[in-house]
Amino acid sequence: MPIENVYNNINLKKVAEKAGVSIATVSRVINNSPSVNPQTRARIQKIIKDLNYSPNRVAKRLRNRNVSSKLLGVLIPDIQNPFYVEVLRGIEDVAYLHEYALIVCNFSQDEVKEKMYLDLMRSESVDGLITAPTSEEDQQVIELARSGLPMVCVDRDLVGIDVDSVLVDNRKGAYLAVDYLAKKGYTRIAYISGIPKIPSSRDREKGYRDALRDNHIPFKESLVKYGDSRHESGVKLCAELLDLEQPPDAIFAGNNLITLGALETIHTRGLKIPEEIAVVGFDDMYWSISLNPPLTAVRQPAYNIGKCAAEQLISRIDSPGRPTSQMILKTELMVRNSC
Amino acid sequence: MPIENVYNNINLKKVAEKAGVSIATVSRVINNSPSVNPQTRARIQKIIKDLNYSPNRVAKRLRNRNVSSKLLGVLIPDIQNPFYVEVLRGIEDVAYLHEYALIVCNFSQDEVKEKMYLDLMRSESVDGLITAPTSEEDQQVIELARSGLPMVCVDRDLVGIDVDSVLVDNRKGAYLAVDYLAKKGYTRIAYISGIPKIPSSRDREKGYRDALRDNHIPFKESLVKYGDSRHESGVKLCAELLDLEQPPDAIFAGNNLITLGALETIHTRGLKIPEEIAVVGFDDMYWSISLNPPLTAVRQPAYNIGKCAAEQLISRIDSPGRPTSQMILKTELMVRNSC
DNA sequence: TTGAAAGCGCTAACAT
DNA sequence: ATGTTAGCGCTTTCAA
Fold first, then answer.
1. A113: nearest CA in chain B?
2. What does DSSP assign to residue B133?
């Protein structure tokens, strides 16, 4: 079904005609090429302004398949997760500063969508990509990285290929949380995990186990539940834990959405936090203080993750040869009243 | 600084060579043109698969400036606001269903950024745009709409031009909230407004005033505070209200971020909700039940807003001549324990 | 300092 | 059923 794209019909040619010069000269003005007569330049600039002309980025990208076109792709696993929103904000700010535009896609942890959007990124000729792969073995992402597209992984790394990444110390963060619970005297500490094939989920479980071991608390299979990193999963798995014959006295929730789900279940059942059940979440939110009760949580520097990732990516685009780097940012336990 | 775009170098020509046909034939296969020999088609399809070829969308868009290129733009005022995230999810689902890709930009309520991204949308040749203008008189958006780009406004409408829009009944929603407070016996009801030049802020104030009037409560200038729709604004303005010589006994917060900010201030001061101060928010969040206390709030059907907007937009792209429509969705008061 | 022209990958009108 | 070719808007090499 054809549509009338009558808008944006001002192009180089029109500007050139009006200025009585060739399109090459106009192009030079736009790209700040030094070899243009200052008077010609001024005249053309005025016309550009008058006509409200802005260059067609699509044509530019097509032409410059070997030159930066100032476009970055961001592929987000779950836009409903405030953690990724915060990461995105960090990316945005840096991109804006360097005059890069962003094309953002959210694949909602759906690998089919992920593949579709990965193809999209490639076929939109983005200069580089920031993403959080679904797993360390994410073939789609690995392939794209192999093909030479500048890429930075956040939150999750890739195996079998050397790629820039910005991660956090998940194991340590989880340790902090669970150790704190143990020291407070809780002994039946449960862990609600996100998708187990995501490395961060496994790292957090490692930290959980480390802390149990160091505090001489035996690991209990029944106190670990695996879900899918979403709110609903937190609701359901928390209910399963509470229904256990020997329910936990504390819950360590694998991410912020799981935490919110667990809180919902606990509140629905009218249980008192932390008297009847303690809660520590992974991922702090700026409104965690307004939760009931103010939530103790492991804080990831989400904004900074995005900021670093964007800086790494732009620096790689500028100098493709530079060695890859892996940044691991620190996590921190924000102690409040939920345990 | 040049980069090596060595990736994605498979194009029509390569596929055509390998298949021993012309690029036109390959193009026909890709676009499901009927006039292709079934055997040729099968052979070409196999090669496409083997080579992992996907058509270059950039070239396609450049070529088809008068044909849909299956790309929609979404311009979000504040990605940190869960309301817009939910709207975005509605848009995404519909777009995905109709095989449209999305280019999402967030302008963080910054008009300079807004203009930049509006230009970007135009120069990326999107088929259509969904946005929430900064005001009814948003010249940038009006101009773009005038130029003929299919557009749907969400949350906020435009004056002086007939454009599709999906709104909610803000006035009624606010009325519901304030009326409920009044009937509960609160008499010093404050309103913390978002940016006043956004129509929804003003409509909510109208609803607030309507409810006061109908409940014979005199309107007090001092109990209305204007801010900028963000968390920090809620923190600050709530503090100002509490510092009043005659502080309010209830607060109606203009949006979800303001509500969270107000809650933060109230909790920091150790005030009891609702005994010492009641709170009703505009915008429900799925985790409102986990707030302290579970929050009473006006619910907007955010996901549906996005869904309807995307459907309207796609339908307009398909039939540009159809009359514009304005949808107004219902709001609803979710009663919990904060008043 | 400026212009002419090739070509990025694709589609569609026209030709065969 | 298939091929040839113009041209979308732009940058850049080469020539003037």
1. B96
2. -
